[in-house]
Structure formats: C-alpha cells, structure tokens
C-alpha cells in the first residue's frame, strides 16, 4: 500500500484520536508528534541528495516535498517497482506523483527483484508495503541486495495502535523466520481467520462490509490489500539486524508510522 493511500483512509481517524492524545502526553512526546521531519532525517538526508534510488510501491506522499521523509525533491533519480502495472491504489505509470525525477518503472514482486542488479541503487524506499508482503524477510533480503554498500534502506510500516490493526496481536520474529524458511508465497492466507475476526472495519471504510472485506481478502493474491503481519519498532530493528543492516534510525511518527532506516555496510578491507 502506498503512503498516500493509507493517509487518505485514516485522515478522519487522525484528527479525532490525536486531539485527545495531545491532552495527556508529556512535552517531549508532543514535540515528537508535531515535528515536521521524522527522527533521524538530518542524518539520512545525505543518503538521498543527488543520488539514485528505488521505491518499492509508491508514489508515496510521505516521500514528497514537505513530507515526513522528503526524498523526491532531493534525489537525482528515483525508479519505481510494483507487483502490477496497475494496483487498487495507484497507477505506477503516473509520473506526477514522483515528480520530474522518475526513471525506470519495474513490474516485479517485492521479494523477487531478479531484473535489478546487486548494489544498483544508493537508497531504497518502501512506505506501507512490508505489511502487505507474505514473506517479509525474503523481501528485506532482496531490498538489501539492490542497495549499494554504504547505501540506505528506508522502510515504513503502520503503528497498529492507531490503525485498523489495533486489535491484532504482533507478529513474532519467530513466525517471520518460519515463513522465510518455508518459502511462503504471495498467495498465502495463513492469517485470514485472524484478520477477518480482528480487523476494525469502522476504521477502514473503503473495505466495505464484512462480506465485501472477506471477498477482497480471498482475492489477495491479485489485489494485495491484506495486512499479513503486524510490526512494532523492536521487531523491525530485529529484521534489519537479521538482514545484516546497520540501523541508523528508528522512530515512531504521527499519525501511525514506524520509520526504520538502515545502512548496508561497506565491505571490509582485507589486510595484505
């Protein structure tokens, strides 16, 4: 799911929930909720300026000029990749969302970027995509592969506490490892019963009635609207570490974002 679409779905919930929240949180938390850029952005900006990157999914409002993680107006070129030429959220062929720096557009699975060379990009972005992927560790492994040594991977996932997933249990890292080992594919419906029972349809009006939502989930292999997994910051850091990424920054941002940035370490120089 793109950041732009997720924001549209949740806008009415944001205002109601955060007005009440602001009355009870400490000053430091208020500053975090109201700041313009995500935590750690000052460090990350140097990875984008004048460089070439890839976005999985998108275009995403969060990466546009004035967004929480502005990238499109700073990079030299950004290519895009989606599982289909058209999705229920966007048309990847539409250039205006990315701005004038849009380059190549790939059609490929998030967990299989076989058409892209190792280390092709100086940064890779994915906003509200990983939760839609049935095999997150395989996807992260691929995203890391196409990042050049010294490059940055930015992954944003929903903070379930403020979304329609708030009733669902967190996915354990052990479950993610089991999915990776068993080679789970994108037609997986392991979590269907849990999703149908716990998804808060009141916070997801476009999903329609329970029966409409059920039909959509059963067609997930072609639609990809279902959230397979539910993450928290600790699990995301563990995922990055599992992939061998050095975590540069982790932050929880209003209204419902977990932002994790990791650097692919440069190869060590062997002593002669």
Tell me about this structure:
This protein has 272 residues and is of the alpha/beta class. It has one domain: Rossmann fold, CATH 3.40.50. Helices cover 32% and strands 19% of the residues. It has 9 helices and 7 strands. The protein has a 7-stranded mixed beta sheet, with helices on both faces. Mean pLDDT is 86; it is low at 1-34.
Task: Give the % helix.
Answer: 25-40%
Computed CA radius of gyration, to the nearest angstrom: 18 Å
Enumerate the strands of the largest sheet in spatial order, edge to edge or round the barrel.
3-2-1-4-5-7-6
Low-confidence stretches: 1-34
Q: Could you please say which CATH topology applies here? A: Rossmann fold
Tell me, what's the shape? globular
Structural class by helix and strand composition = alpha/beta
- Under CATH at level 1, the class stands as Alpha Beta
Count structural domains: 1
CATH superfamily: Vaccinia Virus protein VP39
Count of helical stretches: 9
> What is the H/E order?
HHHEEEEHEHHHHHEE
How many strands in all?
7
What are its keywords?
single chain, 272 residues, alpha/beta, 7 strands, disordered N terminus
Topology, element by element:
Blueprint: H1 3-22, H2 27-34, H3 41-48, E1 52-56, E2 77-82, E3 102-107, E4 121-127, H4 136-145, E5 147-158, H5 173-182, H6 192-198, H7 210-218, H8 220-223, H9 233-242, E6 245-253, E7 257-264
Parallel strand pairs: 1-2, 1-4, 2-3, 4-5
Antiparallel strand pairs: 5-7, 6-7
């Amino acid at each position: 799911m793109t950041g732009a679409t997720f924001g549209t779905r949740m806008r009415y919930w944001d205002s109601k929930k955060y007005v009440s929240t602001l009355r009870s949180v400490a000053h430091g938390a208020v500053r975090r909720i109201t700041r313009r850029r995500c935590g750690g952005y000052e460090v990350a900006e140097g990875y984008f300026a004048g460089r070439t990157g890839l976005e999985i999914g998108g275009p995403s409002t969060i990466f546009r000029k004035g967004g929480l993680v502005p990238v499109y107006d700073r990079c030299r070129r950004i290519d895009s990749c989606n599982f289909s030429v058209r999705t229920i959220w966007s048309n990847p062929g539409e250039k205006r969302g990315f701005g004038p720096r849009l380059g190549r557009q790939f059609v490929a699975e998030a967990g299989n970027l076989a058409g892209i060379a190792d280390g092709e990009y100086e940064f890779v972005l994915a906003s509200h995509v990983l939760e839609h992927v049935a095999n997150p560790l395989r996807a992260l492994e691929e995203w890391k592969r196409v990042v050049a040594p010294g490059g940055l991977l930015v992954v944003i996932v929903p903070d379930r506490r403020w979304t329609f997933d708030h009733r669902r249990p967190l996915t354990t890292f052990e479950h993610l490892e089991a999915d990776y080992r068993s080679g789970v594919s994108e037609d997986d419906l392991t979590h269907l019963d849990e999703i149908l029972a716990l998804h808060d349809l009141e916070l997801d009006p476009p999903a329609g009635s329970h029966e409409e939502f059920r039909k959509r989930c059963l067609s997930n292999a072609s639609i990809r609207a279902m959230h397979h997994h539910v993450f928290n910051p600790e699990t995301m850091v563990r995922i990055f570490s599992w992939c061998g990424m050095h975590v540069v920054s982790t932050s929880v941002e209003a209204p419902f974002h977990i932002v994790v940035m990791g650097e692919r370490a440069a190869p060590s120089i062997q002593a002669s």
